[in-house]
Amino acid sequence: MTNAIEVTGMKKVFGSQTAIKDVTLTIKKGEVFGLLGPSGSGKTTTNKILTGELSATSGDVKVLGMDATKFGTSEFKSKIGILSDNSSLYDRLTVYDNLKLFCKLYDAPVKQIDVILKEVNLQDARSQTVSKLSKGMKQRVLLAKALIHKPDLVFLDEPTSALDPGNIVHIHRALQRLNEAGTTIFLTTHNMEEATELCDRVAFLHNGELQEVDSPSALRFKYSTHAFHVETVNGEQLVIQNKPENAGQINELMTNNQIKFIHTDNPTLGQIFLKVTGKELI
Ligand SMILES: Nc1ncnc2c1ncn2[C@@H]1O[C@H](COP(=O)(O)OP(=O)(O)OP(=O)(O)O)[C@@H](O)[C@H]1O
C-alpha cells in the first residue's frame, strides 16, 4: 500500500447544505499534505470524515488501506493521531501524568513520554500542571498526545492558529522531524506561510470543492507572471519579462551596477487562492 488516503467522489450534506461537494484526492504515504481554505470551506468536515468522527453522505473513503467501516476499530485508532479543536487535556494533572494516561489508553510504553516531550521541546515542563501552561505550551502537549502512540498518519486541524511565533517554530520543527521519520501528515490550515513551509502538496478547498492540487512551488510557478521586478539605484521600478530577448537589458543593468533589488514574481499561496477562487484565504 503506497497511499495513505484515497478519497473518491466524497460528498457531505448537512440538512439542506452541501458542505463537501465531490472531492477526489489521493495522498501518498510519507507526504505532508495541506488542505487550505477559508472559514466554512469544509476543512473540518473533511478532517472529521477522514478520522471517522463523521460519515460521508456518499463516495468512497479509504485511510491506511481501511474503508470507513473500520474507522471505529482500535486498529484504525492505533494508526492515526489527531490534533483538533476537540482535543483536550486534564487541566489539574501534570504534563507527564496527562501523557501517562494517554499511553495507557493507546497501549503505548511510558518511556515514550520523554521521547515525545523532547520532540515538542517541553522536557522542562514535564512536572508542570497543565492549567498553569501558556496556550502555546498546551498546544504542544496536545501535539505530544496526538503522537504518543507513534501513529503512521496524523491529522492536524489548524495546529498553530493564534499561537506566537516561538511556539509555531517548535511545532513546525516537531512536524518536520516527524515527517522525516516517515509519518504522513494531513494538515488543514488557512495559514499560507505554514502550508508553504511544511507541505509537499496542497489543495485549495472552496465551497466544498477542490480547486487546485499541487506542490506550493509548482502552483507559485504556474501563477507567476514570469517577470523580474527591478528597482534601480536611481529608484526606477522596472518589470522585465523573463525572456531571452530581455537578457541584454538585464545584463546592461548589472554591468553598470544599476540594480538595487531584483526579484522574480512569486505569488504567495494566498494570492493564488484569491486568483483561483475570488476569495481571500482568511
Ligand atoms: N454539524 C453541522 N451541521 C450543519 N452544518 C454544518 C455542520 N458542520 C459544518 N457545517 C457547515 O458546513 C460548512 C463547512 O464547515 P467546516 O466546519 O467544515 O468548515 P471549515 O473550513 O473547517 O471552517 P473553519 O475554518 O471556520 O473551521 C459550513 O458552511 C458549516 O456551517
> Which small-molecule ligands are present, each listed once?
adenosine-5'-triphosphate
> Please, how many domains?
2
Query: CATH class of the largest domain, anyone?
Result: Alpha Beta
What shape does the CA trace take? globular
- What structural class do helix, strand and pairing data support? alpha/beta
Number of helices: 10
Low confidence ranges: none
CATH-derived topology of the largest domain: Rossmann fold
The succession of helices and strands, N to C, reads EEEHEEHEHHHEHEHEEHEEHEH
Which key terms come to mind for this protein?
single chain; 282 residues; alpha/beta; Rossmann fold; 2 domains; six-stranded mixed sheet; four-stranded antiparallel sheet; 10 helices; 13 strands; globular; binds adenosine-5'-triphosphate
What does this structure look like?
It is a single chain. Helices cover 34% and strands 29% of the residues. It has 282 residues and is an alpha/beta fold. The protein has 2 domains: 3-220, 3-Layer(aba) Sandwich (Rossmann fold), CATH 3.40.50; 226-265. The protein is globular, with a radius of gyration of 22 Å. Residues 14, 17, 19, 37, 39-45 line the site of adenosine-5'-triphosphate.
Layout of helices and strands, plus pairs?
Blueprint: E1 3-14, E2 17-28, E3 32-36, H1 43-50, E4 58-63, E5 66-67, H2 74-79, E6 80-83, H3 95-106, H4 112-119, H5 135-147, E7 153-157, H6 165-180, E8 184-189, H7 192-198, E9 201-206, E10 209-214, H8 216-222, E11 227-232, E12 237-241, H9 247-255, E13 259-264, H10 269-277
Parallel strand pairs: 3-8, 3-9, 6-7, 7-8
Antiparallel strand pairs: 1-2, 1-4, 4-5, 9-10, 11-12, 11-13
The chain binds adenosine-5'-triphosphate.
GO molecular function: ATP binding
Keywords: ATP-binding, Nucleotide-binding, Transport
InterPro entries: AAA+_ATPase, ABC_transporter-like_ATP-bd, ABC_transporter-like_CS, ABC_transporter_ATP-binding, P-loop_NTPase
